[in-house]
Amino acid sequence: MNAPVKAQRIPAAAVRGFCADAMRKAGVPDADAARIAELMLEADLIGADAHGVFRLPQYVQRLKLGSTNPRPDIKVERSAPATALVHGDNGMGHLVVSRAAETAVELARECGVAWVGCVMSGHAGAAGVYAALPLKSDMIGMYSAVANANHMPLAGGAEPLLGTNPFAIAIPAGEEPPVVLDIATSIVSYGTIKNHRLQNMPLHDDWMIDPKTGEAITDPHKSAHALLLPMAGYKGAGLALMLGLLAGTLNGALFGRDCVDFNAEPDRVTNTGQFVLALDPSRFQKLEQFKAEVDRHVRSLRNSKALPGESVRLPGDARAKRRNDRMANGLALPPELMKQLDALAAELAIAPLAGR
Q1: Lower CB density within 10 Å: C or N end of the chain?
Q2: Whole-angstrom Cα distance, residue 105 to residue 102?
Q3: What are the tens digits of pLDDT across the range 240-260?
Q4: Cβ distance 146 to 254 under 8 Å?
Q5: Contacts of 197 (CB under 8 A, 6+ apart)
Q6: Which is nearest to 269 in space by CA: 65, 126, 125?
Q7: CA 236 to CA 231: how far, in whole Å?
Q8: Which of 235, 284, 251 is nearest to 85 (CA)?
């Protein structure tokens, strides 16, 4: 029996350059390509492995089919002192949502808090990347989106009418890593399901069910016709519903039965909706005092008593460790993904990852 092929470590700079080159070849202007590549790499660095370079072939396909606009004219409509709507012109979601985060920070500097929605956007990758953008301005960030396909039922339902609609919150700290929660409202993200399918790994028996029988589906190749279960039962389904209404319906973007499955229909415009909230903690107390208090609580919680054989985990701890490791040692990309990316490099006539 042959030993399994180990994932290959690729330098972060090589991944960033590869993504940027692929975007340029697909018609994206240089500055936009660099920004998209930066945000895609960030998803990989923090451990959102199904939302970074993993998605690149799909993004390129949509750009080449014309279902995503490579040169969008993104416009910001300020609707009140602390609210705005970003019209994405069907551009790459990374560009649209990062513009929303920039706008939210700008408005929050004036008002203390800002809510910015997106319409005519696209898939933007990992939620935590965008919740964390306001951290650079010492602000708290929140982000949610209507996922780009419906895989989840309502509580007690047998139809896929909800997306895995993610939610992320990022809170700045002082010497400690920021506290960052990034969750899908499904029990796992659909990107995780896709990653299991790519690597032919069985699904956990509490992830997906057959909509006709309710029985568990563990074969990843049967996932396209299975229902992805919400986290915490009816609570996850209810949260996905509410976030979908806020990120989609509120902005004039698609939700529910109207959603376009960007996996199954790569030639159709998705009109994805998202929102970013920025909150300035200095409006409540001195910034350094707040950050010091976050540090104090984080250390107290991390050092609390753990279960036998376990360690206490806080949102953001593993993220920070992964990021440091991957910046220093590269990204561990599985051979199945490397094969796809090599094929993409040949198709676009750009240097393959291993040669960078």
Answers
A1: N
A2: 5
A3: 999 999 999 999 999 999 999
A4: yes
A5: 220, 221, 223
A6: 65
A7: 5
A8: 251
Residue 47, token pair as written in the block = 């451990």
What amino acid occupies position 63? L
Q: What SS3 class is residue 138?
A: coil
Amino acid at site 192? T
User: What tokens were used for 17?
Assistant: 């350059």
Q: Under 8 Å CB-to-CB from 72, ≥6 apart: which residues?
A: 88, 89, 90, 91, 92, 95, 96
SS3 (DSSP) at 107: helix
Of the candidates 322, 328, 348, which has an alpha carbon nearest to the alpha carbon of residue 52? Answer: 322
CA separation for the pair 73, 297 (Å, rounded): 44
pLDDT < 50 regions, the chain = 1-3
Report whether 97 contacts 122 (CB < 8 A). Answer: no
Alpha helices in the chain (DSSP H): 12-25, 30-45, 56-65, 93-111, 127-131, 190-198, 234-247, 287-302, 317-329, 335-348
Task: Give ∠ CA 167-168-172 in degrees, rounded to 5.
Answer: 160
Would you say how long the chain is, in residues? 356
CA distance 12 to 329: 8
Could you report the per-residue pLDDT of 21-51, keeping only the tens digit for each?
999 999 999 999 999 999 999 999 999 998 9
pTM over 0.85: yes
